[in-house]
Amino acid sequence: MPAAFPATAAPRTRRLNLKVLAAGAALVLPLIAVLLFNLGRDPHSVRSPLVGGPAPAFALQPIAGGAPLTLESLRGHPVVVNFWATWCVPCISEQQSLTAAARGLRDARFVGIVYEDEKPRIEAFLAERPLDYPVLMDPGARAAIAYGVSGVPETFFIDGEGRIVEKYVGPLDRQTIAALVSKARGSPR
Amino acid sequence: MVPILGRSLILLALLAASAGSLLALATGARPSVAGWVWSRRLAYAFGGLMLLANLTMEYALLAHDFSVGYVAHVGSRSVPAWVSAVSLWSSLEGSILFWGLVLGAYVALTTWANRDRYPEHMPWAVGIWLACGAFFSFLLAGPAQPFATVANPPLDGPGPNALLQNHYLMVIHPPFLYAGYVGMTIPFGFACAALFAGKLGHDFLRPLRNALLLPWIFLTIAIVLGGWWAYEVLGWGGYWAWDPVENASFLPWLTATAALHSALLVERKGVLKGWTVTLIAATFLLTILGTFMTRSGVFNSVHSFTQSAIGPTILAFLAVSLLFSVALFALRVDTLEAEGSLTPGVSRDAAFLVQNLLFVLFTFTVLLGTVFPLVMEAARGVQMSVGRPYFDQMAVPIGVALLFVMGVGPALPWGRATGQQIQRALVPPLLGATALTLAGFLLGVRSRWTLLALLCGGFTAQVTLSEMILPVRQRMRAHGEDILEALRSAGRRGRRRFGAYVVHAGAILAIVAIAVSSTMGSSKEIQLREGESASLGAYTLTFVKGEVVQEPHRESVRARMEIEKNGQRLGTLFPAMNYYESQREPVGTPAVRSGLTEDLYLSVHNIDARAGTVGLLVLVNPMVAWIWVATAIMALGGLVALVPPLRARALAARMAAAESAPAIEGLQ
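Predict the joint structure of the above. Result:
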């Protein structure tokens, strides 16, 4: 059968097979509904049991040198603890927002804790892009373990009493930082 | 520079695909030569642009151009070049780009191969393929952009997922999976074209079936490679866990296998046309569902790409495809008229129907088990998992039934069998069945289901072998040919049939091997100090020492284990724990000593080279190696069945050149 282009147009029929339509809809619509309902749910998300409880204490050496910084010494201020690393691209992208927020929100204290990274790399990084808040080394990842950090960036918002008000996973923007800091400010004393 | 080039290529591909899709569909509705010529050109352009976009990304990966978003995300200067090259499919955006490459290649090549055939169908098919191409180009242009510009490029990146770097199987598994998954778009386009044209005749069945068979072969290999990878890497000693992502690859395989069989009934009897195109459409839709499963973050799985923003976009595409298919079927399925009818009674036809129903039942079982946790979450707000018991309970009986039907069908004649024919066909193979079951029992098989699998496997194996030899015997008897001559001519004439039986032989072997390996193994957990030994069955394992091995992209702590069996030294195994820069959790590498009858499998739980201690999971897994062999046989059989059309085509071309007569159809 030699093929020839163009073909003749297909026959037009206007018969709608209702059985097929009903069966197809009965299968397809619930499936779409279930998938739609579950969209946006993260099966990995387990609410941190630390939220609402006291923030684990730490005393860590700032990369710039000097005495170890303790969480205790920041009592009375809302505290933003940001876990980050130089190998983490989203961490670097959120640092602009963090620096800007640290300048704008004068009452809050910002702290960066280095997660799974080496001192020379951090120093080289900070020489190029300095941060406006102290960056602390976390040898043996003790603080990261105490805070249950499973990846970076993760940021903890702590109120003046030393309670964790919120844990944020992923890169932050300025609005979110401002909102969560005011939540840390406003929590009952 | 590179990001802009990449983005431009993607945008051009989007343009070519959407314009080509609209034009081709319009050409389908109002045939015109110019419309068809330009539809084809746009299909080639789409394939070419996707190729260029992928080459651009490869260049960026190998040149460590961290101004490209994807490279900044998965690239690293500290990994070997081959890891950089395969990073293309190590993460979300790159894998979608790779999807585009595979789709582009399939579309361009299939369009080219059929450029002057099937004028009623091809424009519709190209329209559907390019619509899919437009969607994936859109994903790459927006929601999953691999060529985003990084404003302040980092000096170095984290490197790809450690699992990808850990084992070569993870490097070759994804390309096979994509070749299978993406390839299902082609038969879907053909099926839609058959509905649009209102015609599924004998001539169009061949491209439809071949378009289905090729990705089916890839998907078969990919599923087993995935299992093999899990076995060699994950360290829990098994190869299949009914994980949502494993199910995602298995579901379209089930419907595609069913469709390959129902297409035979269309060919033989002219019936089940609507059913066959439904199965083909279902196969495609299940691949999109699978893509949603792995990339939306909705399903909890070891393999899923973590939290991504493209879930809603893929769901929208899935919903549109589902609704489009339902509407198209409801409007057009009645145009596919049956040309014959099925005779009721016991026959090969009936076996085909049973087989099809079993496969569909299997599909629904797996689909239900996969989606059920989501239903529960939606309805009751509880998190739950159906888990292995459900799947095993359902899959084992269906698998054994399929194994049996695979023997009954080929043993029976087409049409309608008389009582005597049935008896003659079914009784002798019972000998094979009894023999295999007895052998299994003597070797210590006591599980009821495994014995039943051996019974059905033995039955089906005998039928399959005799069906393979039958044409050779017939030729020897009828034409007086010697065995070699008969083999050659039988192979020439009935290659598709022969290939199909090779696939069946592989499937029997696979099912029996799965049954034996999952019921006959033994395992033990041991904790050893340097110099200490432990034993499992006939094996004695001695922990000599722990060693630290530095490699460019990882540090590996391995246990030197001396292995003896029945007092004879077998060699040394090195189960290891690997540490990667990009990952906090170490990745284990089990050591497997594969043999014809059983594997010895060692997996490290904990190891301390300095303290000289190791904790191991030791398993003896019987017959596992046969699963890999069986898959190779199945793939080979598929290839044998696929090759004739190519040869027939070459032959036809030669004949056409010689006689300048159109003699393409009707050969073979």
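Chain B touches chain A through 67 residues (CB under 8 Å).
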